Amino acid sequence: VQLVESGGGWVQTGGSLRLSCTASENTSSIHMMGWYRQAPGNQRELVATITSADNNADYANSVEGRFTISPISKDSAKHTVYLQMDSLKPEDTAVYFCYALTRTFRFEGTHGRRDDYEYWGQGTQVTVSS
Known about the structure:
By secondary structure, the chain is an all-beta fold. It is built from no helices and 12 strands. Strands 2, 4, 5, 6, 10, 11 and 12 form a 7-stranded mixed β-sheet that branches. Strands 1, 3, 7, 8 and 9 form a 5-stranded antiparallel β-sheet that branches.
C-alpha cells in the first residue's frame, strides 16, 4: 500500500485546513485508514481513524468536536480519506501522517490466522500560529 498525503500548511488560530490521503496498491485489504501526528519532542499520537467496512470513527479527545474524518472513498484501485480540521489551535501544530491498516485472514491447518500490516505516509506539516 502506498500512501500520499496533501493539504498541510500554515493557518492562524481558529482557522481550518483539510488533509487528504490517497492509498494505492493492494487497497482491497485495507481495514482502516486515518491520521496520526507528531510534534517536536513528542511521540506520535492518534488523531482519528475510520474503518472501511462500517465507517466506525475514533478520535483523540483533544480533537473531538473540531476534527472530522471522512468515510473512506473507494474509486477503482484507490482509497481516499479526508481530515477536516476546524477551530485549529497552536497545539495542533505537528507533522500529520496518514495511516492505513490492512487485514487478511488465512488458515494454517485447522486454525484461522489474522495478519495485520501498518502503512505510513511521508507526513505533511501543519502549523497553527497564535
